[in-house]
Amino acid sequence: MAYTLLNISERNAPSKGSYWKFCLAGIFVVLALSFLRWGGYLLVARNRLPEHVDVAVVLQGSVAGERPRIATAMTMLLRGSAERVVQ
Question: pTM for this structure?
Answer without folding.
Answer: 0.46
